[in-house]
Design brief:
This protein is mainly alpha-helical and 222 residues long. The chain folds into three domains: 88 residues, Arc Repressor Mutant, subunit A (Orthogonal Bundle), CATH 1.10.10.10; 51 residues, Periplasmic binding protein-like II (D-Maltodextrin-Binding Protein, domain 2, 3-Layer(aba) Sandwich), CATH 3.40.190.10; 53 residues, no CATH class. The protein has a three-stranded parallel beta sheet with strand order 4-3-5, with helices on one face. β1 and β2 form a beta hairpin.
Length: 222
């Protein structure tokens, strides 16, 4: 960054952003003024100041309405998201002034079987913290999802994330007594010729298990 360059001069005031956001939502400076409890002139002045600050025209002015330009439409989407985050942060602080919020992503089965039974102890030790869970089978994307942390199964190869090993596990094949009797299962190699169930979050589990047992099995749908 060049010496003396001050990026803060491109940071609009909250008044500018609120006026722009409401005008973008309503398509009218008059209606925006009504929603914000301001005069139409005040809203127009804030939007003009924002356009001058950015050096970009955000609206096309018509007689009874204003229409976002392409640049304005793109900017409005990002500003709306930023304002929503500010509002959410403020509401969380009001609701829990002594603590914070943790947005945690987990696999559904891990969340219900392992994490949830241990949650009361954590909340008792940290009463000021609110936890929001996000559950999904696909890998979590920290770049596009607003997550604080994630607990997931797999190799530590996520871009932009600091990975910490939590625990190992013992994986064993299971089946019903009837299935075992029907297919005469007595040896691990016998599993290579029977239908197998797969789960999305661990698509390679059977392949890895057979490799650990030294058993060759052709890849097939199951």
């Amino acid at each position: 960054m060049e010496e003396g360059f001050n990026s803060r001069r491109f940071l609009p005031s909250t008044s500018m952003l609120l006026a722009f956001d409401m005008a973008a939502r309503t398509g009218s400076f008059t209606r925006a003024a009504h929603e914000l409890k301001l005069t139409q002139g005040a809203v127009s002045k804030q939007v003009i100041a924002l356009e001058e600050l950015l050096g970009i025209e955000l609206f096309e002015r018509a007689h009874q309405a204003v229409v976002l330009t392409d640049a304005g439409r793109s900017y409005a989407k990002e500003i709306r998201s930023a304002l929503d985050q500010i509002l959410s942060a403020s509401m969380r602080l009001i609701a829990h002034p002594s603590g914070g919020t943790l947005k945690l992503a987990v696999l559904p089965s891990f969340g219900t079987r392992w994490l949830m039974p241990r949650l009361p102890g954590f909340l008792e030790a940290h009463p000021g913290i609110t936890i929001h869970f996000v559950t999904k089978l696909a890998p979590f994307d920290f770049g596009s999802e607003h997550l604080d942390a994630a607990i997931h199964f797999g190799a530590p190869g996520w871009p932009g994330a600091e990975c910490t090993y939590l625990m190992g596990e013992e994986v064993v094949p299971v089946c019903s007594p009837g299935f075992r009797e029907e297919h005469a299962l007595g040896d691990p190699a016998d599993l290579a010729s029977v239908p197998l169930l797969h789960i999305t979050s661990r698509a390679e589990s059977w392949k890895d298990w057979f490799a650990e047992q030294g058993i060759e099995k052709e890849q097939s749908e199951g």
